[in-house]
Amino acid sequence: MRNYLILKTLCKKIYWVGSGNFWYEEGVIRDDNSIFYKIFNHGLFLTYGFMTLLEILAALIGDFPEDEKSDSITFAVSHTIVMIKIFSVISNKKLVKKLIRDLIKVCELYEEDSLMVEKYRIMKINIVAYVFIVYGSTACFVFEGLRKMHVGSHFVTVVTYYPSYGEDSLLAVITRITTTFVLIIMMLTMIVSVDCFALANLIIFKYKFITLKGYFEKLKEDFDKLLETGNPRKAAEQLTQGLIAGIIMHKELIRISTEIDKAFGTILALQLFQSSGSAVSLLLQITLSDQLTLVARMKILFFIIALFFLLGLFLCNAGDITYQASLLSDSIFYCGWHSCPSQYPSKARRNLGLLVLQACAQSQRPIVMKAFKMLELTYATFLLVVRGTYSVFALIYAQNQ
């Protein structure tokens, strides 16, 4: 599936979950400035915000048992970060629209169908796995609420300041059920509008470098074929023109990388904080509590897996971008310029060599995605975060023994 169709389909889903129209073409997706859509959009996010506020109040001043108090803190921190992530994307809507347009057009003429099929398959596997883990975690929270109700307590998934722990009125029951449905819808908005949207852009951007690498390799093949036909001057001229076009595409990719950082940099940075900080709290909750049921332990484990799985998807795909960008220098250098025939003017050969030298020098400074403009988003960073999280957990756990 081509990038145009992938991103247009994703933008349609983002529209239907209430986050607005991010597509760059007018009239393709419905207008998000209509009065009915604005009511839907504002009402949805006011509901999310109000529930998050109640979670924060529950975490700060609520009087709940130990397990529900821990859940209130977990949800308050996580959902606050989710809201910030959602609004960071929505506030950059114009930039995202431009990013989508530029990302689709660059290298579009040279994308091979087999590569597009591979990209779509990887993207689908990543997204489906993430959705399964997120809703697996949500299901565990729901099952734990049902278990509590079965043993004589009350049903609860999202712990909010109202209703209080001991209140079992009809309004309290309706509120607890309503917040569960809001949680499910909020997870859908987070998955579609933020996490999968950012992930799709990272994967597409990574495959742009793979496409450009293949483009330079094909320049070499075409150059050799023309040399074999006995037309060295045409071969050299075509190589020069192709090399210039490739360098322009490379510069465009470098520029797009800054747009990706502006559009999704906050999301990547917050995910680092959320995965590490929340994981320490959740691991301590498992190890220090003796009263957790199997379902309660499963809901915490699913939550931790979801946090680190998403972080892994972000960091590994960002790391892949750096790796694929670093491979361009070899493809450029071996494009065939050194095989230019002696019949080709010496000045033109020198200019071609200088062009290759400049392109190689530029590609040897590969793109590195960063969080907070300091921490590199690579495979090594993912391992560093996992080890650091475990080290902090082990230190706090040891002090509590």
Q: What does this 3D model show about the protein?
A:
With 401 residues, this protein is mainly α. The protein has one domain. It has a two-stranded antiparallel sheet. Strand 1 and strand 2 form a beta hairpin. The radius of gyration is 26 Å and the shape is elongated. It starts with a helix and ends with a helix. The model has no long low-confidence stretch (mean pLDDT 87).
Task: Kindly list the characteristics that best describe this protein.
single chain, about 400 residues, mainly alpha, two-stranded antiparallel sheet, 2 strands, about 0% strand
Short summary of the structure?
This protein is an all-alpha fold and 401 residues long. It has helices at 3-16, 35-61, 66-90, 93-105, 113-150, 170-228, 232-288, 294-326, 328-333, 346-363, 379-399, and strands spanning 370-371, 375-376. The protein is built from 11 helices and 2 strands.
